[in-house]
Amino acid sequence: MENKLCCKIGPSILNSDLSQLYNESQRLLDSGADYLHLDVMDGAFVPNLTIGHPVVKCLRNKLPNTMFETHMMVQNPIQWISPMADASVDQYTFHIEPCNDVRLVCRKIREAGMKVGLAIKPGTSVLCVEEYIEEADMILVMTVEPGFGGQQFMTNMMPKIEWLREKYPTLDIEVDGGVGPNTIDMCAKAGANMIVSGTAVIQAENPPQVIKLLKESVNKHLNIK
Ligand SMILES: O=C(CO)[C@@H](O)[C@H](O)COP(=O)(O)O
């Protein structure tokens, strides 16, 4: 049977020069990025503030054809569905931890015309997302505590990815946090096919080379499976 999974690299713009958000985004796309991972933080779910839907909408106006994933590190994910849909976001990824009714949020995201991503923090068991797999297009396994770029990759999150890949061979699995040339092989081997990389790409001397390396590692392991 044909493996429908494909490798996608989505740089996180969190640690870029945000005064140059469009130029930085374009630079990443020109370097081979498949999509943009836009980190939205509300200062409540995580101890940091970043961009919101007005900025995402402005960026969308400049980049009409780019896949946008918003990683919603927010306390009340249902609140931002409509504004993000209005900003033509493609995929709305939210954390299940603060959510009272995950199914309702998933349904509202779909009704608003976006894909659904479910994210789990390092301390959250992968079993907690299992009951919602049918509602999701993608599961995001965090390999740092959400809130800041440039943190150390948590190797001990790999069993979560392995478990998901074993049970759901065609599921999109994204990994985020401390991912770069030194850690990509672990993610790829575990079964991640959507790769978020912030600092490693943004601060690289040669971003196209880093993105190529990330892709090669994932594709190598996708072909083995
Ligand atoms: O969501 C987050 C952090 O909360 C991530 O998207 C990071 O911002 C990725 O940056 P690096 O860890 O790759 O520097």
TrEMBL record:
Sequence positions that bind substrate: S12, H71, G147, F148, G149, G150, G178, G198, T199
Top-rank EC class of the record's enzyme: isomerase
Active site: D39, D176
Pathway named in the protein's UniProt entry: Carbohydrate degradation; pentose phosphate pathway; D-xylulose 5-phosphate from D-ribulose 5-phosphate (non-oxidative stage): step 1/1
GO biological process: carbohydrate metabolic process; pentose-phosphate shunt
Family: Belongs to the ribulose-phosphate 3-epimerase family.
Record protein name field: Ribulose-phosphate 3-epimerase
